[in-house]
Amino acid sequence: MALLDIVFGLWQILTLNVQLVGYEPDEETRERMEQRAEMLKREMTRLWQEVEQMNQEKRSQEQSGFAWASLLLSALQHWQCWAVAGVLVLLFGLCWWLRKRSREPEREEESFGNNVEKEKHGEENDDANDPGRFFEDPTQRPVQNRDRDCEAVKNLVEKFIDLFNRDVSNTWYPVVQKAIEVGTIFEGWSPQEADITHHLLVSLRPPRGHIFHLEPGPVWPMRNFRIHVELVCTCEMEQPAGETRCFLHDPEEEQSRKEGPNILDDLCTDSYLDVQKTAHWFQKMVRCFWKDLPESATHHLMVLPSDRSCKLQVLTQGWKKRFLIELMFGVQERDSDVFLSSQYTEAAYTPSTMWPETYAVAEMKFFSHIAIQAEPDTCHLRCLQLCVSSLLGRDISAYTLTTVVMHLLTIIPLSRWRKDIFMERLEDIMLYLQRCLNKKGLNHFFIGNDNVPEVIILPEEVQTAKPFNLFQHLEHDPDANEEAWLDFLVLQCWLRKLILHGH
Q1: Is residue 6 predicted with pLDDT exceeding 70?
Q2: For residue 143, how many other CB atoms are within 10 A of its CB?
């Protein structure tokens, strides 16, 4: 009955339209309408039989098909309904014919408008299928601007370091080496373009008459060290011009060292190099030397609070540009590309004398090695940027996705990372990450990996170590495992939307 009510309502509307154009059907027309209704009844019976046949062929849609078949059968039992339907069809056709001439210009305009829209839609679809659109993101800063900013930051830090070494050359403070650019912005990509932080690692060497002895500490979960600062005999060592005395065997030299500023008394805790003391000392020196730099006349410097690094904010004249810089401190492990850094460990509490191992320099060297070998249209950095950008603020870290991409770069030839097969590489990243989550295992790229390029220098114990699983916590923490899978699904949905709609 609900169907009859709907049909009756439509009949009323169309009848009103007919009355408006002055049409009243005669007896002959009514007879033809009844004949048309009978024909429609036979046609609907045939359609119902076809529906029944389709239901048998498609068992998966049995319930939905049965409902529709029942509805059709019920309607067939009321031939009056189909008579009314026939009347509606004829009335609708008559209304359309009577208004045809008056609507011709309007339809022509609509047709033209629709064609234009179709052409535009076609162009949009063509753009959506073009991988090149992912490399022309208007929100991305031009490469030349990024490179220019990086160069400006490097020059500023180099000037600071030159002043440092000039001031501490005759003291017993650490010798500051040239800063090493690390992090996403120097690797050529960044997950976000706003408030980019330029990370640099400042390598420290012991002052004259001292050595750094690296003592392995607990694994949380990566290796961590304490840096024991020791005095050494320099009697038999080659000394700078005018320097012939030894701290250990010359009483006057020993007394002079104790009375003046020195690394053991000022930057150590129980003879171990203290991260926080080192950071505060460095921040103090930056404030002191800023006025000696020519940039101080046109730039404004602010040293931001930090216990384990030196964070700087530099504003250009008129505050037109802002640079965020973080200087981390590190001690090199022998002559390798692995350093002990001042960054926090993954433990809830990091002692101030604990220096975790970092592979940031090795990672930077890896991407530089890839850049030298890759063609200009290689898309690995853009793939990494898109994936990391979609997961900002979630538990799957940028380091996890970077590790996945580095593994794939040693598996898939660089010739297969072209922009025209950009989508395939995104799928490879997702498949690799999915397999790692399934087995709860993602190996660290540098520890115990035979596929590390030879250009990267690793300590022997790192090369021969058992591969380290970055996902080992997922085996014992169901909540972390569930969150990781949720992040994966978020990434998967985001990339599918990106591929389909381009945003």
Answers
A1: no
A2: 9
